[in-house]
């Protein structure tokens, strides 16, 4: 028989050392994965929590991204300074103390008191609310990736820490993709926040464990001359890192804004682009071979051309629009991040590299989320981002190309720049006014109708917010979704005429519904965007010509109604579009209860649900059933030669005794049948994936 080899103390020591190293590696990986998962899971949770406080605007998503990128920059700066200024063990102590202090800020629930102040300065108030609710935990989470990599590189000199960056991005993507599928459809938002807070406490324990493993790994300071001798990257190289990261960030936010405003401000359409952005990080940093440079450089001009129709205002079916923009964004990000990985420095300068990446991300986010709405009249940031992407690729390739190819690329770049300038000019050319603020872009356009004369239109994004014929013969006639054949038109025309009526409208638009006012009537018009009110007064005459007393109320309609005394409306119309979707907080069971509080027993709640992308019928039907109300749907398919009407879908909600008479008076009114198994929306729960057309 073979004699079993006896293991010496030296062998046993080596085994224990290998086992300890394995435990340390698992500890680092677990901490990085958990931190990245929580880092990106909190983003849709807190954004959805505060979305109703700021009018449901898609700008809330962009502003949230600016905040998270700024926090990420602070976190990376903290890590860089910690790495440069403190010894390894002092780093462990400082970070452990901050982790324990951050537990005092739990749970991560935004203070409802901010609802009252949200309207005054929405952009800055979003940032303040986020800072107070998640500032400290998010900052500590943002430090974990680069800090663990620095500690990991110190403990395992033979292994590359960049794969931990890929692991963190994988966790981030899983967090984002799981939210709309596994979290949002099943759990109210406050339950999500409490569960996240518990998970954060577990993360703190895991991070403290990693700090302890790092502490044990530096029993003595060991110099690594080969690492310290790596030359510091030139500032031109650092600027190129910043430029590539900034361009990817600009394109991410600009394309996300397009999707969330012109399709729907929902977590899914916020999560999808960010997931693709993170996927490019995962592929590029985990294994650079995934960035096949020739293939992606060929795909880049194809992606730029694919977006040409989107930029030029072309209308595409929703699936094609989402697919085209998502695939293009992925190609842009793979090129930017792939070139970053090709130029990454030695491990000694790892924290500097990540600091430059975070500076670029924060600059891109601030440009789209803060600067552009204040400076630009139109959405110029997407053309600017596309041109920067093309320009940086030319810069990166410049030294590798022969002179003839350099000049050819320069000519192509110049031609592409001219094309983007032309598209940008079209955004503002031929419009009477182009305005933009936190709540989106408004444009006023004049077109000539051969039979009826000049027609003036207000647009929010690509959506009509009212039309009026300027000729005195027709300028008092209601048009578009509000014409006399529409559901709201018929409902208003069939209100009692033997006494003055009181009518409420959430969403002013051009003020078309004011044309239905009669002498003695009062119409309260709720509008969150002051620019809409200014345009309605300046460029349209519905408000001035109305026989009713018009009372404009600036602010979020739902919040205003919740704070007002009972109004006793004969009819309350909900017509608050955000791009091409009604903000979800205006359709919850709590919101509809607030509306019904202001309506007389025989009164009518009219809800405009015309939408290209969302089927809002089951939402309204489920609420009506739970509140013991009857809902009637009125669908108008306007004739092609009807200059005054557009296709529209209105739902009339009334108490059972009033609904019977209403159905007899309104042509085409039919009972709205609830969808079996459809869950009622609440302020804490909504699921737009189930109603996408």
From TrEMBL:
Q: Which UniProt keywords apply?
A: Membrane, Polyamine biosynthesis, Transmembrane, Transmembrane helix
Q: Does the keyword Transmembrane apply?
A: yes
GO BP, one example? polyamine biosynthetic process
- Classification via InterPro entries: SAM-dependent_MTases_sf (IPR029063)
Mind telling me which residue stretches traverse the membrane in this protein?
A: 20-40, 60-81, 93-110, 122-141, 162-182, 194-213, 234-255, 267-285, 290-307, 319-340, 352-372, 378-398, 405-425
- Please give the name of this protein: Spermidine synthase
| UniProt source species | Candidatus Accumulibacter cognatus
Q: Lineage, please?
A: Bacteria, Pseudomonadati, Pseudomonadota, Betaproteobacteria, Candidatus Accumulibacter
């Amino acid at each position: 028989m073979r004699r079993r080899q006896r293991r010496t103390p030296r062998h046993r020591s080596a085994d224990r050392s290998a086992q300890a190293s394995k435990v340390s590696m698992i500890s680092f990986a677990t901490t990085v994965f958990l931190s990245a998962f929580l880092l990106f899971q909190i983003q849709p949770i807190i954004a959805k929590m505060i979305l109703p406080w700021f009018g449901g605007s898609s700008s809330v998503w962009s502003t949230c991204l600016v905040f998270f990128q700024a926090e990420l920059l602070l976190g990376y700066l903290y890590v860089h300074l910690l790495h440069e200024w403190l010894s390894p063990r002092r780093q462990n102590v400082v970070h452990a103390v901050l982790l324990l202090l951050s537990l005092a800020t739990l749970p991560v629930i935004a203070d409802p008191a901010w609802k009252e102040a949200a309207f005054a300065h929405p952009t800055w108030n979003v940032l303040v609310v986020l800072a107070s609710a998640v500032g400290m935990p998010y900052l500590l989470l943002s430090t974990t990736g680069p800090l663990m990599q620095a500690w990991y590189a110190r403990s395992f000199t033979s292994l590359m820490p960049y794969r931990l960056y890929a692991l963190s991005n994988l966790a981030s993507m899983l967090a984002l993709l799981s939210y709309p599928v596994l979290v949002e459809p099943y759990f109210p938002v406050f339950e999500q926040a409490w569960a996240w807070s518990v998970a954060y406490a577990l993360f703190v324990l895991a991070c403290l464990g990693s700090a302890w493993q790092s502490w044990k790994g530096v029993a003595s300071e060991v110099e690594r001359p080969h690492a310290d001798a790596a030359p510091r990257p030139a500032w031109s190289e650092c600027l190129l890192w910043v430029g590539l990261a900034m361009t990817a960030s600009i394109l991410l936010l600009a394309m996300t804004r397009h999707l969330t405003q012109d399709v729907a401000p929902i977590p899914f359409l916020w999560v999808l682009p960010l997931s693709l952005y993170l996927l490019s990080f995962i592929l590029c940093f985990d294994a650079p071979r995934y960035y096949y440079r020739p293939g992606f450089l060929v795909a880049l001009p194809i992606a730029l051309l694919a977006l040409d129709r989107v930029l030029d205002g072309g209308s595409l079916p929703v699936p094609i629009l989402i697919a085209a923009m998502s695939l293009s964004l992925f190609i842009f990000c793979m090129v930017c991040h792939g070139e970053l990985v090709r130029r990454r420095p030695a491990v000694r300068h790892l924290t500097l590299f990540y600091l430059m990446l975070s500076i670029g991300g924060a600059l891109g986010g601030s440009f789209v989320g803060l600067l552009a709405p204040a400076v630009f009249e139109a959405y110029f940031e997407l053309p600017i981002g596309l041109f920067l992407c093309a320009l940086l690729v030319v810069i990166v390739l410049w030294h590798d190309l022969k002179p003839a190819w350099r000049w050819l690329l320069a000519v192509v770049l110049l031609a592409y720049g001219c094309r983007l300038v032309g598209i940008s000019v079209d955004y503002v050319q031929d419009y009477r006014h182009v305005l933009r603020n936190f709540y989106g872009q408004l444009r006023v356009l004049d077109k000539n109708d051969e039979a009826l004369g000049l027609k003036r239109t207000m647009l929010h994004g690509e959506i009509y917010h009212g039309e009026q014929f300027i000729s005195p013969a027709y300028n008092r006639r209601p048009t578009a979704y509000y014409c006399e054949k529409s559901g709201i038109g018929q409902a208003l025309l069939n209100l009692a005429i033997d006494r003055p009526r009181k009518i409420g409208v959430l969403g002013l638009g051009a003020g078309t519904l004011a044309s239905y006012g009669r002498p003695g009537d009062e119409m309260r018009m709720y509008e969150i965007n002051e620019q809409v009110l200014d345009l309605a007064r300046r460029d349209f005459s519905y408000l001035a010509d109305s026989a009713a007393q018009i009372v404009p109320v600036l602010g979020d309609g739902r919040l205003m109604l919740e704070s007002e005394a009972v109004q006793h409306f004969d009819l309350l119309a909900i017509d608050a579009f955000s791009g091409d979707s009604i903000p979800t907080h205006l359709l919850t069971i709590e919101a509809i209860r607030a509306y019904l509080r202001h309506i007389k027993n025989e009164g009518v709640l009219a809800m405009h649900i015309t939408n290209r992308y969302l089927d809002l019928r089951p939402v309204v039907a489920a609420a009506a059933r739970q509140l013991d109300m009857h809902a009637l749907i009125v669908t108008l398919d306007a004739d092609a030669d009807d200059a005054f009407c557009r296709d529209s879908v209105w739902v009339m909600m009334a108490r059972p005794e009033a609904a019977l008479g209403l159905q007899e008076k309104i042509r085409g009114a039919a009972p709205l049948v609830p969808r079996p198994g459809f869950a009622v929306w609440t302020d804490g729960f909504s699921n737009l994936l189930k109603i996408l057309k």
